[in-house]
Structure formats: C-alpha cells, structure tokens
Design goal:
Layout: H1 3-14, E1 20-25, E2 34-42, E3 45-52, H2 55-65, E4 71-75, H3 84-91, E5 96-100, H4 102-117, E6 126-130, H5 134-145, E7 149-153, H6 157-168, E8 179-180, E9 192-195, H7 204-207, E10 216-219, H8 227-235, E11 239-242, H9 258-262
Helix pairs in contact: 1-2, 2-3, 4-5
C-alpha cells in the first residue's frame, strides 16, 4: 500500500467525526520511514497517528491533512536527525499546529496506572526501574517523589550510578534516595517492576526469585520482556502489562482544551 493510500484510509476514519486531529512523532529507535499507528479517540476528538522518519513522507502527510483536520500535533522531541516541528512550521497553514512530547505522555500513563493499582499510595513500595534513558529517569524521579523506594538497573554501571547520583542531587530534602539495583536486598520481593528500554531486557533470570504474585510488572519499552518470561509470570499469577499510553491521552489535549485556552 502506498503512503497516499494509507493517508486516504486514515482520512476515511477521521472524516465523519466533528473534531479531527493527527499526531506525527518518531522514536529514538529506527522504525522505518513511515508507519501508521493505532487510532485514538479522546476529548471528543478522533485522532490518526503516524510515525515518520523521512522528510518526503512528512511533507506528503502534512500537505494531505493541512486544513482537513482541526489540529496537527507534532512531536517536538529531537529523537532523530529529522526535526518534525521545524519542517511542519514551513508547511502547515490552515490547521492548528501544536507541539507534543510523547515521552511525557508515556510517563503520565505509567504514573497514573501505578496510582490506580496501588490506590494512590506508593509510599514505601519497592519499585525497580529498568533503564537509564529519558523515560526511565523521569519515572524514577516521579515515583521517588511519591515516596516509593526506587532502585535503578542499567546496562552500564557507570551510567546507572550517574543517573542515580544526578536525581538524588535535586530530590526534595527528606525524600528516600534512589539506589542502584546492586544495593537491593535480593531476598526481598519487588512491589513493581517497570522497564523502559529500547530493546530486550538482559536480566530476567536474576529477577525470578524477587517476584511473586503481588508484583506488578510494566513493559513500557518495545517488547522488553521475552514471551517465555511473560508466560512464566502469568502462570504464577503475576500481572504483566504493556503500558498503554492512551491512559493519559487527555494530557495531549491540554493546550487546546477550553479551560486552558480561556484561562
């Protein structure tokens, strides 16, 4: 199917709705030049979503939808060489052009999910955050501020220690400090495990003894856990979930919501 056929197909979905929008984003991990992502609906708005890493594909998409949709949401985070927002400013003339930060939406989704699971009480919960990148660091900070006991595991010990020291340097004075995974008492069980990696997790085997049926596991990256790991967790009644960023999708619409506009 050509890009044009994909765009027409998404427009067929959007057209009947009163309020229409598209989102254009990319990822740090190479995912091809053009990809149609799952559709979304929130805040009475139908949304078609695209992952774009190529200037020509970006131009075709923007030209096609400019003026057809109310708002074009463009990822402003510079994760690839292509600058989506800079290019969009040169092309979009009729639709409202609004920047978004998908990483922040992912963090809001993860934060909200954990708050719901633990009835908004994360105090003293032992949580392992796997990863030392943007998302892992942000959720570690957020959970430490919610009084959780946070431990970080990274592929690189040097970066792991750098992230831990960096976050601890500006946490509120009486916050329980973040620790590295090596400081964890391996005889204890995790309340929650969150993975934000761009690839597969390397340490599933050493986690098995530290997980029971009360552990809540979130795969926030791209298939971070193997199918065999997921199966074993489900067999022992341990909840494993793929983070669904639609949970915090209304966060994307804050800039265009009536209360924000009139404030």
């Amino acid at each position: 199917m050509s890009i044009y056929e994909d765009l027409v197909k998404e427009w067929d979905y959007l057209a009947p709705h009163k309020v229409k929008a598209i989102t254009i984003s990319n990822t740090a991990r190479s995912s091809g030049d053009f990809k149609v992502l799952p559709r979304r609906f929130a805040n009475e708005t139908a949304v078609a979503c695209f992952l774009i890493n190529d200037n020509e594909c970006l131009k075709k998409t923007l030209v096609f939808f400019d003026g057809k949709v109310d708002t074009i949401y463009v990822d402003v985070e510079q994760k690839q060489q292509i600058d989506l927002f800079h290019e969009a400013k040169q092309i979009v003339e009729n639709s409202e052009l609004t920047t978004i930060k998908p990483n922040d939406i992912a963090i809001e989704s993860c934060d909200l999910l954990l708050r719901k699971i633990y009835k908004d009480d994360l105090s003293s919960k032992n949580i392992l955050v796997i990863g030392t990148g943007n998302l892992a660091s942000k959720i570690a900070l957020r959970l430490a501020e919610r009084q959780a006991h946070v431990y970080i595991e990274g592929r690189s010990r040097t970066k792991e220690e750098t992230i831990v020291q960096g976050i601890n340097s500006f946490l509120p004075a009486y916050t329980y400090p973040i620790h590295t995974y090596r400081e964890w008492d391996s005889m204890k069980k995790w309340d929650a495990i969150i993975s934000f990696l761009s690839g597969s997790y390397w340490g599933e085997e050493h986690l098995f003894p530290q997980i029971d049926e009360n552990t809540f596991i979130i795969d926030g990256g791209i298939s971070n856990f193997s199918s065999s790991f997921v199966k074993q967790m489900l067999d022992q009644q341990t909840m494993v979930t793929r983070l669904d960023v639609r949970f915090a999708l209304p966060y994307q619409f804050l800039d265009t919501m009536k209360d924000t506009v009139t404030f």
